Amino acid sequence: MKLTIFGRDVDIMRRPHGWEAVYVGNDGKKRRAEDILIPSHLAEQDIIGYVSDVCHEWASARYPRVERRDTKTR
């Protein structure tokens, strides 16, 4: 799942140990988002609501929401 969390590009992937979040840089490089911890029991359809609650301090007038990047063109 590819998200833009209040202006920050983050990929969320299911791993054997649970969910993993990684920041995606402008150059395509990725680094683990150690500040975004998603409970392993959370269902995929609940992740946007969860990260919206956890990261709400990042919201601004320019970036007021969490959006999926992988479904925008569909």
Automatic annotation (TrEMBL):
Q: Which domain of life is it from?
A: Bacteria
Q: Which InterPro entries match?
A: DUF7661
Report domain DUF7661 positions.
2-68
Protein name stated in the entry: DUF7661 domain-containing protein
Q: Which organism is it from?
A: Fluctibacter halophilus
